[in-house]
Amino acid sequence: MSRLFTLSEASSIGLHGLVLIAKSENGLNVLDVAEKIDSSKHHVAKVLQRLVKAGFLGSHRGPGGGFFLKKPARDISLLEIYETIEGKIVITDCPLDKPVCPFDKCIINNITGRMTGEFKDYLDGQTLDMFL
């Protein structure tokens, strides 16, 4: 099956994991998040640690420990989370990053650039609190 758009598992873990943590009153541990989003606990731990380093999350070790938001949910955009996991979104004219097109007119008509721009704008306009 062909898909024009896919979201990496890491991005999905980051986005969904932060929403789940924001919804919880006392934070969640890796096992809680992994179970709720049906993902590997090792992959979840790796992504959440990246979000700790970026300052979105804090963590407590030990029994009863887990992850919690360090910033208010209204101050965290989905774009910030996505770019923390995947890197900055770059909008280009050519989906193949060719500096010169061999055709007089782009066959794809820069639809990928427009779609990327719309996706970036969407993520930037959404904050965690909108999903609580």
What does this 3D model show about the protein?
This protein has 132 residues and is mainly alpha-helical. It has one domain: Orthogonal Bundle (Arc Repressor Mutant, subunit A). The chain is built from five helices and two strands, in the order αααββαα. The protein has a two-stranded antiparallel ribbon. α1 packs across α2, α1 (9-23) packs across α3 and α4 crosses α5. The longest helix has 15 residues, at 9-23. It is elongated, with a radius of gyration of 18 Å. The mean pLDDT is 92.
Short description:
The protein has 132 residues and is mainly alpha-helical. Helix content is 45%, strand content 6%.
Which helices and strands, and how do they pair?
Blueprint: H1 9-23, H2 30-37, H3 41-53, E1 57-60, E2 66-69, H4 78-86, H5 111-124
Antiparallel strand pairs: 1-2
Helix pairs in contact: 1-2, 1-3, 1-4, 2-3, 4-5
Can you say what the CATH homologous superfamily is? Winged helix-like DNA-binding domain superfamily/Winged helix DNA-binding domain
Adjacency order of strands in the biggest sheet: 1-2
Mean pLDDT: 92
Tell me the β content. 5-15%
CATH class: Mainly Alpha
Q: For the report, how would you describe the main beta sheet?
A: 2 strands, antiparallel
Distance between the termini: 33 Å
Percentage of helical residues? 40-55%
Radius of gyration: 18 Å
Number of domains: 1
Poorly predicted runs of 5 or more residues: none
Element string (H = helix, E = strand): HHHEEHH
Shape: elongated
CATH topology: Arc Repressor Mutant, subunit A
Quickly give the structural class: mainly alpha
By DSSP (H or I, 4+ residues per run), the number of helices equals: 5
Give a count of the beta strands, DSSP E runs of length 2 or more: 2
The CATH architecture classification is Orthogonal Bundle
